[in-house]
């Protein structure tokens, strides 16, 4: 206690001495501007890269078009991150099957390049610090400029990357960052989104500092204590040699100090860096586990001349992991079967741009199913997902994107490992998935060995895995440390285990079964698969068969189902019009399909009883309905309208089924253990929909970017949920919240997922220059009223600049036209279709804007006339501006709406930054309105 107090005093003193915090990390997600560019039509890409000297030729000087510091982006659409523009575009039969038929990517150049720009102020007191822009991930092939300086290119949509911008900042002034993302070529074979779909951060450190991902903490645990090993990189980006010491404190979850390291001292020349290694001992450590995900904090400080220079915080967990070739996986010495799912990173309504709370919500749905692990197939996840897995006690197979052993490819793997190695949730590095060109041959064997050696050097604490779909017994599978079986249909795991008795293994993919939520009769015309657990193809395995195989073999560490959630793309076994996969245990909204309850029955200990299908089969009276029960109760009795249809014993890891002739009423299952009633589940045939009902996963939201996942359903007059309802529902929202996306889990739905105002730009063509007496100008001048004509006649130094633009239609009342003007000369007199918009705009007013009264605009040609003393070139190479800016057209969106699919839809509501109350109302013809209130608190 005393020690903590003392430490606080020291800290405060040093902060006061410095007069500012030593390091800062500020979220950089808000206040960006977005517009489409073009992959090859330079005129549609703001002419970027077309100058005589390009941005690759000259630093800063060469930045042109939308990359230039002074480019005017006011007409672009304001957006906050994370942002995925692919969700905003329509579905299109000609678009990519694997990416969910969104009109982006190959064949859609108009929507395949996105530009983002943001203006930010950096205080003059920051001079001397190191300033970085950290991107969690941009899809994809991003290029970044700050103040016109080209910073670099990141081809992958999944790697986090960072740029040091310290030298090029305008201190005490505005700065501008421009990002160009290009998705015209695909990286994965699944929906990947488009744009800055993960967070961006502005990080400020002292010149002498611990670089990003520059600290590695890991531990060895004995019965009574843990040795905590700490490796710290220090960079000196200052101009002088630095002598300093590094000190670490371990804090417990309540913030109390547990142990402090001895000081390590070192010296660094400018631009040099050092790696310091030390260790501390934590007595009686609280271990990180699935039920008790206990996290420690490591506070690392750099001190020089009695001053605190840098302070770096690392969350970490103390735990042991071990894979045994015969007995499977052990966490903290205790056996834990991996009950996992594979997942991509998109969700209904928002695509890949998932708010953190949505990631948490999805992980919670997986946990609710009894799952304890995920595989981030097939790419590095967003870092926030790993923070949540640490916090929630979920194990992670963390996957690299592309196999390779060049320096560049190994560097990609190194970046992933260094970024994520302090997360206790991460238990395995997966270096590859189904690398069909190599997995079965000796190239695969060699590459696996090389990457594995490399991974071990960067992180000696975790094993390496490859997910292999063929050639078991050859190629990669002969050298990989942990064998990854992708699908039992591809070989014999017992045989492989016999031949490689010292190799641990995991079922990295199993399942790939097809199911549509709420569908119980296959309908190939509408492209719906049944939700019963049936074989996806002859010879393949059901979820139950897959799990039984893995559950019955100790040497298999566990199984990862393909997939936890449906995702966009890969709508196998169908193509268009299906746009999402059918593999998920849950649909794209996270609504459970029935398989969830099979797994829940055998993946966790709480009693489970689930009955399928629903009991609304009007028109099928007398027909046989397959009734299934998922449960972990010992005995199950089924009753139709209180008549028993028999009692059956539940087989281990199995399910029960009855053939029942349909009669309306109530179908009921009762579960017993040792003859005692445990659970009852019933479905009753419902009446017609009557009332809309809204439920939120949380009704109190934090102010900034918090989220409510809202389920929309309809009830009949008795209040029963109608599982077959498909009403179209319209939504209205009030208060400090917005609807960021809608979905319903229907794999063939092409409804809009986001309802946003449409932004278009009409770039005004270059003006023609006339003297005021030029005959060609006469017509333009005669449309002005007499007073204006008289005024212009007496001008001497002025000239006329003239241009025109065409409107295909008259503006309508939902449209707002704003002219974002850029100055062209001194004392500008601005006319649109003969109407004076500004009498004397000064040249200093570089960026004026005019909201145009719609009645001034015409269908067809509209005339722009500027009377001014135009800017003249001062040098031979000067090109004075002759373009008078851009007209922005905003077309307001209609109200958001969505159809229910088999009784359900989902609305995602996000808080927008102020406290207050959000009200969401839902209406549909013939139904009673539904409403929900959410409190937004500071
Ligand atoms: C696997 C592959 C996954 C997904 C799945 C669909 O072979 O690893 O990414 O494509 O098939 O069944």
Automatic annotation (TrEMBL):
Q: Name one GO biological process term.
A: carbohydrate metabolic process
UniProt KW Disulfide bond keyword? no
**Residues of the DUF4982 domain:** 622-678
Looking up InterPro entries in the UniProt record yields:
Beta-gal/glucu_dom_sf, DUF4982, GalA-like, Galactose-bd-like_sf, GH, GH2_Domain-Containing, Glyco_hydro2_dom5, Glyco_hydro_2
Instruction: Indicate the segments forming the Glycoside hydrolase family domain, all copies.
Output: 692-752
Q: Which UniProt keywords apply?
A: Glycosidase, Hydrolase, Signal
Which residues are the signal sequence here? 1-19
According to the entry, every stretch annotated as the Glycoside hydrolase family 2 immunoglobulin-like beta-sandwich domain falls at 214-319
Q: Matching Pfam families, A to Z?
A: DUF4982, Glyco_hydro2_C5, Glyco_hydro_2, Glyco_hydro_2_C, Glyco_hydro_2_N
Segments forming domain Glycosyl hydrolases family 2 sugar binding: 111-206
> What is an example of a GO molecular function annotated in this UniProt entry?
hydrolase activity, hydrolyzing O-glycosyl compounds
List the SUPFAM superfamilies hit by this protein, alphabetically: (Trans)glycosidases, beta-Galactosidase/glucuronidase domain, Galactose-binding domain-like
**Annotated ranges, domain Glycoside hydrolase family 2 catalytic:** 326-512
UniProt xrefs under Gene3D superfamilies: Galactose-binding domain-like, Glycosidases, Immunoglobulins
| NCBIfam families documented for this protein | GalA
Name the protein family.
Belongs to the glycosyl hydrolase 2 family.
Designated name of the protein: DUF4982 domain-containing protein
């Amino acid at each position: 206690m005393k020690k903590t107090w003392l430490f606080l005093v020291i800290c405060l003193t040093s902060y006061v001495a410095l007069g500012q915090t030593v390091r800062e990390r500020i979220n950089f997600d808000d206040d960006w501007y977005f517009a489409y560019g073009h992959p090859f039509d330079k005129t549609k890409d703001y002419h970027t890269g077309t100058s005589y000297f390009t941005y690759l030729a000259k630093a800063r000087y060469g930045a042109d078009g939308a990359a230039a510091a002074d480019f005017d982006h006011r007409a672009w659409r304001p957006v906050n991150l994370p942002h995925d523009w692919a969700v905003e575009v329509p579905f299109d039969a000609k678009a990519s099957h694997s990416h969910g038929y969104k009109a982006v990517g190959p064949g859609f150049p108009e929507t395949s390049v996105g530009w983002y720009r943001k203006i930010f102020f950096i205080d003059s007191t920051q001079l001397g610090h190191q300033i970085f822009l950290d991107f969690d991930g941009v899809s994809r092939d991003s290029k970044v400029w700050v103040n016109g300086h080209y910073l670099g290119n990141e081809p992958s949509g999944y790697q986090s990357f960072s740029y040091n911008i310290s030298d090029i900042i305008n201190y005490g002034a505005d700065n501008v960052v421009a990002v160009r993302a290009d998705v015209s070529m695909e990286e994965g074979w699944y929906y990947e989104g488009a744009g800055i779909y993960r967070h961006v951060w502005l990080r400020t450190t002292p010149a002498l500092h611990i670089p990003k991902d520059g600290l590695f903490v890991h531990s060895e645990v004995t019965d009574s204590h843990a040795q905590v090993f700490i490796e710290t990189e220090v960079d000196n980006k200052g101009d002088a040699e630095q002598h300093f010491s590094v000190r670490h404190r371990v804090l417990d979850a309540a913030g109390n100090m547990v142990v402090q390291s001895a000081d390590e001292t070192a010296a660094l020349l400018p631009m040099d860096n050092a790696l310091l290694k030390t260790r501390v001992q934590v007595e009686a450590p609280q271990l990180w586990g699935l039920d008790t995900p206990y996290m420690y904090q490591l506070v690392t400080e750099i001190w020089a001349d009695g001053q605190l220079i840098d302070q770096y915080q690392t969350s970490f967990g103390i735990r042991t992991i071990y894979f045994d070739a015969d007995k499977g996986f052990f966490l903290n010495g205790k056996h834990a079967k991996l009950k996992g799912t594979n997942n991509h990173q998109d969700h209904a309504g928002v695509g890949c741009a998932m708010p953190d709370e949505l990631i948490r919500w999805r992980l919670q749905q997986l946990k609710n199913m009894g799952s304890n692990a995920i595989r981030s197939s097939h790419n590095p996840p967003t870092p926030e997902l790993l923070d949540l897995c640490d916090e929630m006690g979920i194990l992670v197979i963390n996957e690299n994107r592309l196999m390779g052993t060049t320096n560049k490819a190994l560097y990609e793997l190194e970046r992933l490992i260094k970024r994520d190695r302090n997360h206790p949730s991460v238990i395995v590095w997966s270096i590859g998935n189904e690398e069909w060109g190599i997995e079965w041959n000796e190239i695969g064997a060699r590459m696996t060995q090389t990457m594995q050696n490399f991974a071990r050097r960067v992180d000696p604490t975790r094993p390496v895995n490859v997910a292999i779909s063929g050639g078991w017994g050859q190629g990669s599978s002969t050298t990989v440390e942990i064998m990854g079986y992708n699908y039992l249909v591809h070989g014999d795991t017992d045989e492989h285990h016999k031949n490689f008795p010292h190799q641990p293994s995991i079922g990295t993919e199993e399942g790939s079964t097809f199911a549509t939520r709420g569908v119980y009769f296959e309908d190939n015309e509408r492209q719906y698969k049944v939700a019963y657990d049936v074989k996806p193809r002859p010879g393949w395995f059901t979820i139950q068969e897959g799990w039984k195989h893995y559950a019955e073999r100790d040497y298999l560490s566990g199984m990862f189902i393909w997939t936890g959630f449906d995702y966009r793309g890969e709508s196998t076994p169908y193509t268009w019009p299906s746009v999402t996969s059918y593999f998920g245990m849950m649909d794209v909204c996270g609504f459970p399909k029935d398989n969830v309850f099979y797994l829940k029955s055998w993946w966790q200990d709480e009693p489970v009883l689930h009955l399928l299908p629903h009991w609304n089969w009007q028109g099928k009276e007398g027909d046989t309905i397959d009734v299934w029960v998922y449960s972990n109760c010992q005995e199950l009795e089924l009753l139709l309208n209180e008549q028993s249809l028999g009692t059956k014993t539940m087989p281990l890891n199995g399910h029960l089924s009855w053939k029942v002739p349909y009669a309306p009423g109530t179908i009921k299952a009762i579960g017993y253990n040792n003859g005692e009633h445990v659970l009852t589940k019933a479905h009753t045939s419902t009446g017609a929909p009557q009332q809309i009902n809204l439920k939120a996963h949380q009704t109190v939201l934090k102010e900034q970017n918090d989220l409510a996942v809202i389920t929309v359903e309809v009830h009949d007059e008795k209040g029963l949920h109608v599982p077959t309802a498909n009403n179209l529902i319209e939504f209205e929202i009030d208060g400090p919240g917005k609807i960021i996306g809608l979905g319903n889990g229907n794999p063939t739905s092409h409804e809009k997922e986001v309802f946003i105002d449409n932004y278009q730009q009409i770039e005004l063509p270059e003006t023609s220059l006339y003297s005021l007496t030029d005959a060609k100008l006469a017509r333009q001048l005669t449309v002005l009223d007499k007073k204006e004509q008289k005024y212009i006649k007496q001008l001497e130094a002025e000239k006329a600049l003239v241009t025109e633009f065409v409107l295909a239609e008259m503006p309508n009342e939902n449209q707002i036209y704003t002219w974002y003007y850029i100055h062209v000369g001194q004392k500008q007199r601005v006319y649109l279709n003969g109407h004076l918009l500004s009498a004397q705009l000064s040249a200093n007013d570089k960026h004026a804007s005019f909201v145009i009264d719609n009645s001034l605009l015409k269908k067809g040609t509209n005339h722009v006339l500027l009377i001014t003393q135009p800017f003249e070139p001062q040098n031979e190479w000067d090109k004075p501006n002759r373009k008078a800016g851009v007209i922005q057209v905003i077309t307001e969106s209609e109200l958001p709406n969505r159809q229910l699919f088999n009784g359900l839809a989902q609305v995602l509501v996000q808080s927008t930054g102020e406290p207050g109350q959000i009200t969401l109302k839902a209406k549909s013809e013939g139904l009673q309105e539904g409403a929900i209130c959410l409190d937004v608190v500071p």
